[in-house]
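Hey, sorry to bother you again with one of my protein questions. A protein chain has come my way and I'm curious about its shape. It would help a lot if you went through both lines with me. I owe you a coffee for this, so here goes:
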Amino acid sequence: MKKVSEVFKEKTGKDYQTAVVWKMTTKKKITKTVYTYFNWIIGYGVDSDNVPEIIFIPVDPKWGWIEEPISCRKTDSEMVQDKKTSLFSLRNGQFEDGKIDLQLITSVAMMEKYLMDVNYMFDYEKLNEYCSTYWMDA
């Protein structure tokens, strides 16, 4: 988790709270469904203009590659919360399908080949509080 913070700060120059989320995409092939998993380092905070911001950095689970950051400010993005699961999703045109779920990696037991070996289970409350406080309209 320390490396996640270091890489985030190195790539963005910002000292935000960090976490790792994952995204799964599915593609139907003729006889089967192919699943692809993506890891994203995220950092969240309030920028120098006092605008809530979440920055995403796509990264390989083995640190083989680290992409350029994608910045999502509240002024150009929309946060929604699923009423059943309480999961937050961020909508922004920079993502392939227009949104990303803020689903933290809490266990890698089932998907150790695809996901980073981090556990942010205890940080979910911080992310939840941030999204509720800064992104959801009261």
